[in-house]
Amino acid sequence: MTKNRKLETELITCITEHKEHVYRLAYSYVKNQEDALDIVQEAIQKAFAAADSLKSHVAIKSWFYRIVVNTSLDFLRKHKKLTVMDDVTMEAITPGSEDAYTNIDLERALEDLPTMYRSVITLRYFEDLKIDEIADVLKENTSTIKTRLYQALKLLRIKMNDDTLVEVN
Fold this sequence. Notes:
Elements: H1 3-17, H2 19-30, H3 33-49, H4 60-79, H5 87-93, H6 104-112, H7 115-126, H8 131-138, H9 142-168
């Protein structure tokens, strides 16, 4: 098997194994089913076009996730479009209940976070990536990701506590 054919096979395997995850990742940015599908399709095209630039086959998953994140961010910049996701839509696209945003307060708090924090939270807790994988996806060093994760969780705690306090009074 030639090197290009082997790379193509590995890329197809990666895309197939992670298709639901990358779709949810794209959806977490654009909050629209059709746009998320378009982003995934564009990311797949970009991945095949740039496959020769992949230095390590071991990093193919984080490399592809990075393409999906960048394509999602490009889409948002082009369309300057942010929408709120409702629970019914989220449940319809998730394969299992464990990945659904069941807490509306959490969903609102996540929406209020700046993109750099929301990305880290989404990749870590909803896509279950490790810190070093998130660093690869976002092209940041590991300590930056740890700091952003800590700050994001702190902001979420503050937001969630503030909402709870307001509702109690």
